[in-house]
Structures
1.
Amino acid sequence: MKKVVITGIGMITAVGNGKDATWASIKAAKPGIGRITKFDASRCTCQVAAEVKGFEEYAIGGGLLDRREARHMAEFTKYAVAAAVEAWKDAGFADMRKEGSEGFRPDMDRVGTMLGVGIGGIEVTGESFKTLFDRGPDRLSPLAIPELISNEGAGNIAIAIGAKGPAQVVTTACASSSDALGFALDMIRAGRADVMIAGGAEATIIEFCVGGFMKEKALATRFNDAPEKSCRPFNADRDGFVMGEGSAILILESEDHARARGAKVYAELAGYGATCDSYHITAPDPSGDGAVKAIEIALRDAGVADRTTVDYINAHGTSTHLNDSMETKAFKRVFGEDQAKKINISSTKPFHGHCLGATGAIEAAITAMSIREGWVPPTLNYENPDPELDLNYTPNQGVARDIRVAVSTSLGFGGHNGVLVFKKA
């Protein structure tokens, strides 16, 4: 079976525009959560979110996004295209739109796109319905439909880069972009592509989405006056997740393709597993059965027979009572209680928030960089340990550690479980 490696990373997050800025904030333990500024949140019980900041100046000013084309994109697509172009450059590929551009020029018929998106252009949907109700159908934008549909994220990435292989979108709630990366892995293994542009994007910080999750009682509400403290995975006083937005795109290549062109490698994407709880439309199965099976499938897919080689888990870690307790139980079941306590576990959501369909890709990118640097990110705000959650959650300060194998878990509404396994390359 072909080995698949990560050769490029692009990121747009609440803690930084670009891979390097995001990683620097994580190393400095600098969270990206603040008071909501994208709309008047005074009617909401949750008034905090992890918003992307200074994006257009960075993306358009930095040549990652064309100003005219951006006018006809939903926000999630803008994030996706900017992250994809950054990742493409980071991988050492040429700008295929420019003759004489420096970098390797792959066979673009063998380059595919796979994007995970949970909701898509929801702000375009809202604005369009308002126009329809207030002014009638004749006043709708002719681009309303192309902007709001989720597949336009993948389509615009392919157009921006010139990728002519399959361009597809995966929607499995908060597991979307982990599943997208898993499907991209299989595309290369199956010989359907040499290179895959894969990841996720989301932009849902609008009153409708915050209000909807608020009414589900899923969001944090106790720390509106101290936003940076609001996301508290594995704490006894955790009270809900904090919404985030952004994108991460990873360039995946067969190892042979990457080595032949002398590419740098972050890590090997070695395994993927997916299951469904078949339990509840929003709540995870408290037994952890679905998560356990997905992790075990991913480890088996990666050829990890010795589970003591797993040094790091980037947990879904949403800061909700149900998720954090279930995940802890699942980790103990997979690895055994004694071995589970030897693994560094962290949730990076206190940095970038819960980015729904983009969260798996953002956490996959962080995991790959952690392996390459030999450093485990911390779980911020770990101040009041839950006595029932007794694993090593890497509290508050990151630690240096040689990471041989890492696992990243993403668990979504509908019972979707997507798990990725990475190896040091």
2.
Amino acid sequence: MSNKKYNQKHLTMTQRIWIEKGLNDGEALASIARRIEKHPTTIAKEVKRNRYFPPQKDRKSPLPCERRKECQIRFLCDNKDCVNLCKTCYSPGRDAQYCSEICPDYLVKQCSSISKAPYVCNGCPKFKRCNLQHALYSAQDADANYQNLLVSSRDGINQSPADVAMLDGLISPLLKNGQSMAHIYAHHGHEIPCSRRTLYTYIDKGIFEARNIDMRRRVRYKCKERKSPTRVSLSAREFRIGRTYEDFQKSMKQNPTISVVEMDTVVGGISNSTQVFLTMLFRNCSLMLIFPIREKNQYCVTEVFDYLSNSLGITTFKELFPVILTDNGTEFQFPARIECDEMGEIRTKVFFCNPNCSWQKGMLEKNHEYIRYVIPKGQSLDPYSWEDAVLLMNHINSEARDSLNGCNPFKLSLMLLNNKLHKLLGLKEIPPDEVCLRPTLLKK
């Protein structure tokens, strides 16, 4: 027995052309296999799989039936008085009423050489005068069949109907509840018998009740050109001295392990809303805090900081909020009051991003999209109370994130932050399947 090792790669168009040429020249399959360095069984399977049976258009009568000699079938025609065998019967006014037209057991008689190597008639010297069914191999047709098979084998759904129904019942309600695929997979990955990419494909093909419109983002982000700074003089204002982004980077190099909290405000409809949300995000765990404030001004922002430092204690506050990174909004342009409490004791350090560079606190900017899932942009924030903000915070912080390896910000914050903050603000984890990030959460 030969120990020669053959490569396991698929046949190429060139190799198929060599197979066709070898068959036309009457070569044995083993000889063809040696030429293209494949096993003879591979050649035999290739020929039998891709051969075709051409119709013989020039014949005046159909091909003979394989069962003609032993056939005893009668009464197939409409003539009730006919008692002849159907294979010998003739109808008046026309040629023979062929068995191929009326007999359900008709079987084309094939040449015995088709049932054994080389399985085709390509190199047969009797090809032109043969009255039996022909079989031919074409390299071009064989390669086309191969390419079609590559595509068709990957079409359709590789799941049983029961599995599809199970997946639909599990995933569709959660997607319609505003949950992300990352959150669903983090808590139900052990129940899902396919990859996340496959689930996106099923949704795109309409296999599930949930549709693309039920998902948060189904289009790519468009890359917009950054506008040139319009407030050039802002970078030279007094409140930024010693608190620029470059100063922030220097401070982080000196204290790389220090916790950073990004801060910003979220506004509702400009013409119909005075209340805004003051938001903070802990970089180390992605926990986001939301505080409704009456107006977008320095006094309301300071009130929040005073409340937190008085309730938590100055020591705990310093531990939680050692560094604040924010933008250049007018509500933050009194940093000395934010950094110090009412008694003048320093409680934090404030730094400002460069003008028109909100990406420097990109984690918080990106996290604002969770608020917009529940409260669409342009909608007034006036109707929402502190209880609504706490509910919104809890649902946002209970969603699992890919960036946190399937964990959610709340769980991570319990390990990294002082838990006095959680007790003070009423932070708690929402059960995974109850997380809702749709407008129905705060229906007003």
3.
Amino acid sequence: MNTKLLLILGLVAVLASSCVTSKKYKALDNKLQSLTTSFSKSQSDLNACENARGKYKDQVDGLNKQIEDLTKQIDYFKANNNQVLNQLENLSVISNSQAESIKQSMANIGQKDAYIYGLQNSLAQKDSLNMALVLNLKGVIGNLSDQDINIKVDKGVVYIDISDKMLFKSGSYVITDQASGVLGKVAKVLKNQPNIEFMVEGHTDNVPFKKGDLIDNWDLSVKRATAVVRLLQTQYGIDPAKMTAAGRSEYLPVSSNDTPDGKSANRRTRIVILPQLDQFFKLLERK
């Protein structure tokens, strides 16, 4: 009788041990799936960063080449001025005022040299800020398709293109509930950058349009732009002084209107992060 009892107890212990092992395995498997998903998201963000960085690398390289050429010219003129000044002083053929004038010219060249280096640093800082802004926007938007929302940098300007099917119903300028969520994510990033100003542009395809109070594609594009700006102001608290609404109608397409896909790409709302030109004008001011 005792032997049977011991066998039963042993069997119960084995089954209990097997159950615990199965639960641990399931927990570890769930953790593995979570880590795999996080890794895929991080890899996607990294790829987006590399793509954005490559798009304007050529532009930065071109500016650096121009700066390098100007620096070489400055060095050449400085060397020639030093040589001429020394020769003139040794021969005593110029007056003190003339010598002072030449020295002042050399000082001005030095100031131009410093200006070029300052401009180079400003361009590098602007590129870094644009990259950070793009990454923040891609992070909050998530895994939406580039056909629905596309964020890019072109010639130092950040563009956010949102397809009309995400924002409006066909032929309407009333923003959908789905669009409010997307625009809310974009607004969150823009609101955290108080110095940023931007323009909201409405774009259409080339199909003639007339409906109700809308008489053509100009009307439709303007109404859609003002609808987005109004929502960003009233619902998400964006400073209206930082925004501009504009209608582009059909006249700035990004694709051919000869195909349905091309027409779909052209029907979009574009948010353009405006360059802060006042900072560059300050650089151009002579001290």
